[in-house]
Design a protein that fits this description.
about 70% helix; 2 strands; mainly alpha
């Protein structure tokens, strides 16, 4: 019986081997009949999967080239528009105060309404960008912001002015999605170098408004200054037509053919080649789902980022508006103040006063704007050497220090230097927060994640005017202390962020 069982098992084993040989021979014959050479690797692994690649691999393979220079220049327009609309508030505030005899809280409300519009539309624009595309949202935001900014110059009253500025804020919220669009095209090793350079365009927008204030306001008034400020926006709208939709978004939406066309166009511009094979990534059905932001994987990151964005905006606009307010009201403790500004505002003695900027004030604001780009090499060094999280901690601590130093008694030159350094570090921190946010969230929720963050940042922007413009009249040290305090608390929060994104590939799905 044992001998028979052993013989039967041998027979079954031989039959199985013969069957495999027959199947393999049939597959080889099929390949030969189709003129496909049967290489040894194919004989050993007949069922080898075809080569394929992801968008991340395609972006890295294309590398940096002419397209990214074009992208960098044109998408910087989003920063120019946002900077012009924000700095316009600092330049126009003394003028509208004089024209409509406004109190401090009414002047502060102008800035608050801009940030209110930004806050409301920030989340909405992020949701639409994740669902329907980044390009459409940014392009629509350009047109919206330009249109309502132009209407602002025709405001017949203070009420119309703040309403129209709120509408401008809604448009600026959409243009901020341009940072996401830009980030998704840049290879990982270049992001720490290119993204901080966006500060150059912010500085150009800020300087353009200040120069318009110096040249146009004294002769033609603030209304013509706003009209002239719309001209760059119209030019940049045309240039934006040369930027394609994000290939990462197209793949996530299932439009693989569109993504292939975009990547092939970029590869041709850069004179590079795509990886071998075909583009293959699964379609992401849960795009723009805000629940992902508070899922266990991202809950702590989102909560700490929302606070970080609040502080970044609160401190940045606090530095801008504080500098403007200290100059306008001559609240500075300086040893060489000019005769024209020997008047201090006293809220108890008069409900309104009118002290427009002189040429020296404009020059001080102009120099402080340069601070936002003067230390870009330091910003790039911090990002590449220490990473995103340590960079934020260092910059937040320095921001708190310089906020307190602005209060010391010094010369006008000393104040200008301190304001220059303050604007430098708060701008660098804002830049790093932008970069970290765009890198930490996956493509499926990157835009809505950015939208929520920018909305929380505008809460800081809404509060900052009442500290910098209203409380400042009561006490300079009392107004500057909150800005320093929130920076210190935020530095502690950043340490607790669970993810460091330096050198990490952009995630496609959560």
């Amino acid at each position: 019986m044992a001998l028979k069982r052993s013989s039967s098992m041998k027979t079954q084993l031989v039959d199985a081997i013969q069957l495999e040989e027959v199947e393999l021979e049939e597959e080889i014959n099929t390949s030969t009949s189709n003129n496909i050479p049967a290489e040894p690797a194919q004989v050993k692994a007949v069922h080898t999967e075809p080569k394929c690649y992801t968008v991340e691999e395609a972006v890295e393979s294309i590398g940096f080239g002419r397209f990214h220079i074009l992208l960098f220049v044109i998408m910087g327009s989003a920063n120019i528009i946002e900077a012009m609309e924000i700095m316009l508030l600092a330049v126009v505030s003394p003028e509208i105060r004089c024209e409509w005899r406004l109190e401090d809280w009414q002047v502060a409300l102008v800035s608050t309404m801009v940030f209110f519009g930004f806050m409301i539309f920030g989340v909405l624009c992020g949701y639409v960008a994740d669902r329907y595309g980044r390009w459409k949202v940014v392009f629509g935001g350009f047109i919206w912001a330009s249109y309502f900014s132009l209407l602002t110059s025709f405001s017949p009253s203070y009420g119309w002015f703040i309403f129209l500025r709120c509408m401008v804020g809604c448009g600026v919220a959409a243009t901020s999605q341009g940072f996401v669009l830009k980030t998704e095209f840049i290879p990982a090793k270049y992001r720490a170098f290119l993204l901080p350079l966006a500060s150059i365009f912010w500085m150009l927008g800020s300087m353009f408004i200040i120069i318009l204030g110096m040249t146009v306001v004294p002769t033609m008034g603030w209304r013509w200054m706003i009209r002239f400020s719309v001209i760059p926006s119209l030019i940049l709208i045309g240039l934006f037509l040369f930027i394609p939709e994000s290939a990462r978004y197209q793949v996530s939406a299932g439009n693989v053919q569109g993504a292939m066309s975009t990547l092939n166009w970029i590869a041709r511009m850069n004179r590079a080649t795509l990886p071998e094979g075909e583009l293959r990534e699964p379609e992401v059905t849960e795009r723009g789902n805000a629940i992902t932001l508070i899922s266990p994987a991202f809950r702590r990151t989102s909560l700490l980022l929302w606070y970080s964005w609040f502080v970044a905006s609160f401190s940045y606009y606090g530095s801008v508006l504080s500098g403007s307010e200290l100059l306008e009201k001559n609240l500075l403790c300086v040893t060489d103040a000019d005769q024209e500004h020997q008047i201090k505002h006293n809220q108890e003695e008069a409900l309104c006063y009118c002290i427009p900027f002189n040429i020296t004030d404009y020059q001080t604001l102009l120099i402080s704007c340069l601070g936002e780009v003067a230390l870009i090499p330091l910003n790039i060094g911090l990002l590449n050497i220490f990473g995103r999280k340590p960079s934020m901690v260092i910059l937040l601590v320095l921001s708190a220090v310089f906020f307190m130093l602005v209060n010391i008694c010094t010369t006008m030159f000393g104040f200008t230097v301190l304001l220059f350094l303050l604007r430098s570090v708060v701008a660098m921190n804002f830049n790093v927060v932008y970069i970290y946010t765009a890198e930490v969230y996956p493509t499926a929720v990157r835009s809505i994640g950015m939208g929520f963050c920018t909305s929380f940042s505008r809460i800081g922007g809404m509060i900052a005017p009442f500290i910098a413009q209203v409380l400042m009249s009561k006490s300079v040290i009392l107004a500057l202390s909150p800005f320093a305090a929130v920076c210190v608390f935020c530095a502690v929060g950043v340490i607790l962020l669970p993810i460091e994104t330096r050198g990490r590939a952009l995630l496609q799905n959560a």
